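TICKET #2291
ISSUE: user wants both folds in one file
ATTACHMENT 1:
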Amino acid sequence: MSRINVNNLTFYYDGDYEPVFDQVSFAIDTDWKLGFIGRNGKGKTTFLKLLMAKYDYTGTISTNVVFDYFPYTIKEEYDQKPAAEFLEELKAGCEEWRVICELDQLGVEAERLYRPFGTLSFGERTKIMLALLFSGEHQFLLIDEPTNHLDQASREMVKGYLAGKRGFILVSHDRELLDACIDHVLVLNRHSIEVQAGSFSSWWENKCRRDAFEKRENEKHKKEINKLKNASERARQWASKNEASKIGIDPIKDHDRGNGTRPYIGAKTKKMQSRVTQMEKRMQREIEEKEDLLWDIENPPDLKLMPLQHHKNTLLSMQKYGLQYSDARQPLFQNLTMEIKRGERVFLNGYNGCGKSSLISMILQQAVGKAEGLKADPQKMLESGTLETASGLIISYISQDTSFLSGSIHRFCQEKQLDESLFCSILRQLDLERVQFDRQMEHYSEGQKKKVLIAASLLTPAHLYIWDEPLNYIDIFSRMQIEKLILASQPTMLVVEHDVRFREQIATKVIDLGC
């Protein structure tokens, strides 16, 4: 077992005024299975790249271990080659037989290594890269969001695989995955960093308990400060009144005052002023203690959604519906019968490639025409059965693809006819920092791009919300925020999402497609 010691780490991106890390210090063991948790943009991926010596920084990161990073960079030309031909380029010194052994643990046949990489599913590509990552020896592995775009079966396979490994940092926003795989957490809080033994759920329980305690202490401090302020003000007024009474004696009104009265009053006034000073010092101490309490509390504001009410109860219906690519031999699915009624939140479930996104494309094509971010081309699809949508149906859509986002927030709002101030307000509620508003969206992280799409959808009143993998790259705290919003607003939804806990919280109906 070795240690990674981080001391006074400070890092800025070029052109940024705020540091990503500022005088950060902590230590971790390389034998741990460490879950890395934090909001989008807090620096999780940046820290992994600092470990890989991708950026210059001040401070020190000291260790004697060698790092390797997932995901590997897949060049465009690799899509036409089998993975077996470029494994060595991705990981120097790798041995193919070790990769095959790891693939067996992931339930992937070795022959997938000899197919063109671009023809493999997302799940198969991810598993090949994970097998390559774990095929080495004496390395500490950095795993950055391995389950994005994976179906539930693939997630379960990856979860079981990682649970049997040791010596890695896992960046993930999937609560099920973290609970199954990790024994320590490294958390980027709002103003601090903490390392703690346990799973995500045990850390979250401890955090909720600590936050509740700090809120109670904060209320006690507030009350104490108010009491001290009132007592200080009364004492100050008394001292000022008595100080003024030292001079200007009226022999008729103040016939009982002798020559020693003035020094006596002065002494009492000085004593009272000393009490005022002590009270003010106590107040300052209370204020400082109070300020330290709430820095790291996650208390996101409640989001708002204003769904429209359609005059029909049934918004969408299918009878023995099926889809097939015009150049394919087999249909994606067939004989699908389902309805979406007002207030229902229907989740589509199924393996990668079973036709979930294609079905969404056909629904959007029929209801509103082509939507931005669609991957499937409705013109190349063959339909069977019937698909009907209610007339005048207004749909708010989130694509799983974010590659079309570019340019400024201002231009995006103009094109989408969104109120820019409200849009930016929602982004702030989703914890996107104001400094990002001046950047071009193509430079955003994937999580930040997703938040742009979510904010646009929340700001669009609709009868039906269709969200295709909306939570890819979205941090845990924002996921909980969105869960709370949906449960409060009760919109009608059609959702593709593989986050099990999100689905359990939100879904009123689950449709298995192609399983």
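ATTACHMENT 2:
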Amino acid sequence: MKNFWSAFLGSLLALFIGGFAFIFLMFLILGATVAAFSLEEITPIDYNTVLKIDLSERIVDNPPQNLWGTLDPFTMRVSRSTSLLSVLNAIEAAAQDERIRGIYLNLSTVSVGMAAMEEIREALSAFKASGKFIISYSNYYSQGTYYLASVADKVYLNPEGALEWRGMSSTLMFFKGTLDKLGIQPEIYRVGEFKSAVEPFMLEKMSPENRRQYEVLLGTIWENIVHEIAASRGLDYSALQSYASALAVENPRKAVELGFIDAIKYSDQVLVELADEVYYDPEKEVDFISLSDYIQALQGRSGRRSSKNRVAVIYAEGDIVDGSAPEGMIGGDDLAAKIAKVRKDDKVKAVVLRVNSPGGSALASEIIWREMTLLQQEKPVVVSMGNYAASGGYYISAPADLILADKHTLTGSIGVFGLMFNIEEACREKLGITTDVAKTNPSGDIGNIFRAALPVERAYIQNSVEDVYRTFVDHVAQGRNLTREQVLDIAGGRVWSGISASRIGLIDGYGRLKDAIALAADRAGISEDYRVITPNEELNQLQQLINSFLSSKIKTRLPGGEMELLQEYRSLMRILEQQGVQARMPYTLYLE
């Protein structure tokens, strides 16, 4: 028996070591393969090349650390994301690149937020000012893709396609009826009449304050979109509004008649026109370069600038949570440590914080705010707001010297809330589950989800929420050089568009990420000699490859309606997963 166990354990150990060695060997082989691909010659760019932009890849603020993308284990396809700054730099470079003749927009699919869409549109408008052409084509234009396309010299649509023009809306889901059926009582604590993140749990429809907030917010963004499209296409603003109200764009022919597009064409006909534009020969085949290939070519050609002066761009993208967080979220401790690191780096002369966050944990926001305050005392700090910089996202922005946003940025939401549930009745009546507790003091089990909160506990928690709100308001007043009363007038949890935020003093002006970088360098006195760095951990190729496997996710492919339910579910779970007081924006808006 002793020999048996010795042999068995020896075989088991050998199997374990052999398996580990095999996996390690496979990673080495894959790493070598990827390295070999990385050494391939960069796509050459000939003269009279057309830059093709379809924006089908996911565009994010934070440059992806994993350059090889994320592997879908079912399809074995690799999905990649591109940084917004890379896209903007590529469009700007193409305007000066004598090899690039023009841009061909193919906008059937675009997955970017409203503010990012605005930044890309401004970059395209600047490209157009260089004298080069932009031609847009799509089988279908949503309002968002048409907003982008409208800057082009020519806009074409498939003869059997469609163009949406109906105005903006946002639909909220309310769960009070469900909670009532289940016997679950929400315990809600909030400050601010507009802090509506908890309304789905206490109401069956929007409060008058929340409805007013939505209508003003949607109205300011929609009015700006209509004005910009009217200016680009030479159309009348009032007419565009009436077309949306009457659903006048019934088909592609009506879109031509009303001036939304220039003609209806098939894609092959557009390619013939492109060839005639580029070569004066419609029989030739157009030489395209994709946006991703052009970005790669620029990176391969430019190399790293040698300047010792650095402007650090730090990205705060995602929900703000306590402690550390995975990619796509903001860990309070993680971001605070990153800010402290650049503060202590003498080579970093100025810092840009790019915020794209609806907020989250109030405590984590406070930890980040403290490091931002220390940083601002030593170096110029400029905040660049993306699609969202609201609630906790605004909390961490307040200490900056300057705050820039896009017109379509959603910001403000200066308010806080706490949310708990009493599931005692639900468990007893629906599941037959009861609980009992032994304690030394009446509130020894405060926060117990199996009983209602005592009056003294409600007062205690509400006081905590109000304390956080007072701190939030004071931070904003200090950072924005406003009185406390001025902040209270625009706080209350109300969300503002960038257009409104500029008027009420929450931001200093409009500007893209590139504008924020230039301003930071100027304030540091290094505008003629600096290079931009991103203080992310630099991973070697093998580490990136391993991360692509470790970060593989099962992708859910759902039709539109079910996808909306999935988004609601994720938003709900982000609220429920948080502990303590939250400074979070109440909703998400999409331009479809």
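RESOLUTION: both attachments delivered.
EXTRA DETAIL ON ATTACHMENT 2: The first helix runs from residue 2 to 38.
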